[in-house]
Amino acid sequence: MKYPNLLERFLIYVKENTRSDEKSTTTPSTQNQVAFAQNILLPEMKRIGLQDVHYLPNGFAVGTLPANDPSLTRKIGFIAHMDTADFNAEGVSPQIIENYDGQPIALGSSGFELHPKDFPQLNHYHGQTLITTDGTTLLGSDDKSGIAEIMTAIEYLVAHPELKHCEIRVGFGPDEEIGVGADKFDVEDFDVDFAYTMDGGPLGELQYETFSAAAAKIDFIGRNVHPGSAKNQMINAFQLAIDFHNALPETDRPEKTDGYQGFFHLMDMAGSVDQAYSSYIIRDFEEADFQARKQLMLDIAAKMNQEFDTPRIIVNLHDQYYNMKKIIEKDMTPITIAKSVMENLGITPIIEPVRGGTDGSKISFMGIPTPNIFAGGENMHGRFEFVSLETMESAVDVILGIVSHP
Questions:
Q1: 270 pairs with which residues across the strands?
Q2: Residue 245 is assigned to a ligand binding site
Q3: Which of 56, 115, 169, 282 is geometrically suited to a Cys-Cys bond with 77, CB 3.0 to 4.6 A?
Q4: pLDDT at residue 299 tops 90
């Protein structure tokens, strides 16, 4: 095993429930994340040799490894998030599948399995060591793989001073999965030339384009009367929600889009005949298309409201983050370095847009260009999540290559 502590470290991390909570008003959104940072990450950061280790009010655990070669003058950051997505994260019990043989993998006794016919990417991992769930929880590779890889790289550099490197800053933050983790990121405290989020998926991912993102909450105001005498009197709020949804382009949904295609994603719907609401996320890559999607929602509401004497469809829009390409393409140095390092390691860079976002989306606009590098996770956010140990090892290799790049 190339990095003996990598797997052990990862298994310790994923067994800690750090699920975030979008309904919370605190930062971090859950106390579990605070405990994970203060009780596990901070002591380990100090133990492996990071300096100036501290925990910030924004929920980030931060530390520095000074340069050991004065000719390497860059300051480079590596960032990963502590929280996991909105799926059961209590009692994570990972399975280790050594020398994967290409057959279906039973996920504990849950009755679920990872089957190559459903998940053909499994065919890329023959002969490798896979870590899976037991079918009752997510795994948490998103993004505890990234944390484990960054920690392991630092540990390796401290143990091998012959490997020359620039100054390195690491940051482990909260609440990425609910889209607010980087809102209070302290750029001045982090103080680097550029950074990378270790938060990507399969081997070779190198990403500097993300969606621009907005959230929409639509309130539908109905009027409830007895259904037996409802003609020309009842206004069913649920029906308004259905009509609104049906007015959106049928093909512009996550399950029908890929590549650079944007979408509207219905996330939640609830209420009664009297009052209902729907929540959506809106995603697109190009600024004009992003703005057009938001305007379409407003236009649909305006058209529907013309039928009533008072507005009954109320749209509230909130921008979440923007495509970081606009920032990073001004200076492609972070991409050029990472691409060169991967190629030198025999890894084919996969430079494709992120159909999502990372903390780097916000941090880039705050002043630190922060593209995204693979961390290894597949099928993230659910019971079918898995990660390859060999891919995680390759991520450590890439970190080491970046910080020693002339």
A1: 277
A2: no
A3: 169
A4: yes
* Residue 9 scores a pLDDT above 90: yes
In percent, how much of the chain has pLDDT > 70?
100
Is 205 annotated in some ligand binding site?
A: no
Supply the pTM of this predicted model: 0.91
Check 16, 21, 44, 83 and give the catalytic one: 83
Average pLDDT over residues 310-327: 96
Over the chain, what is the mean pLDDT? 97
Tell whether residue 115 is among the known ligand binding residues: no
Q: What are phi and psi of 173, to 5 degrees?
A: -120, 170
Exactly one of 149, 167, 176, 359 is catalytic; name it.
Answer: 176
Peptide bond into 189 cis (omega under 30): no
pLDDT recorded at residue 291: 98
Quickly state the pLDDT bin for 356 (edges 50, 70, 90): confident
Query: For the segment 124-134, what is each residue's pLDDT rounded down to a tens digit?
Result: 999 999 999 99
Q: Answer yes or no: 176 catalytic.
A: yes
Distances (CA, A) of 243 to 236, 240, 248, 278: 11, 5, 9, 12
- pLDDT at residue 179, rounded to an integer: 87
CA distance 42 to 9: 14
Query: Is 258 in the active site?
Result: no
